[in-house]
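Worked example 3 (structure in, sequence out).
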């Protein structure tokens, strides 16, 4: 995806503060952190969202979750963290390249959602 901002980050065309990388996934600091630890973990392959992920994307999705604790601990969230994957319009997804937010830090991140 030539004009996708996260694909550009994967290709190094937009700078990012990388915190983990392997052949399949990339983790980098969110440009506008909402907690002391706020890392985005993405598949290097363009997948638009969880709504469009295919069955054969399961290994890379699993890898993102399986790496989350290691990334969180290394970045300063040793006692847990929250993973958020905003999806589509209703999920308020802003960047259409699937990404997991890992948010945390020394203190609890707070309630999951505002109650309706
Ligand atoms: P979403 O609302 O799609 O779940 O979250 C998109 C996230 O991407 C936001 O938290 C936003 O701060 C982050 N973001 C948007 N553009 C960039 C960028 O160019 N670099 C980095 N590191 N983060 C970005
Ligand atoms: Zn992309």
């Amino acid at each position: 995806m030539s004009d996708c901002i996260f694909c550009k980050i994967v290709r190094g065309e937009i700078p990012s503060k990388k915190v983990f990388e392997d052949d399949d996934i990339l983790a980098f600091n969110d440009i506008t952190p909402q907690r002391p630890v706020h890392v985005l973990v993405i598949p290097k392959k363009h997948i638009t969202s969880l709504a469009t992920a295919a069955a054969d994307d399961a290994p890379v999705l699993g890898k993102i979750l399986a790496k989350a604790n290691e990334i969180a601990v290394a970045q300063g969230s040793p006692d847990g963290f929250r993973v958020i994957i905003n999806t589509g319009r209703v999920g308020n997804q802003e960047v259409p390249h699937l990404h997991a937010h890992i948010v945390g830090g020394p203190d609890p991140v707070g309630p999951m959602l505002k109650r309706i």
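Notes: Residues 77 and 105 are 4 Å apart (CA to CA). The helical segments are 5-11, 58-75.
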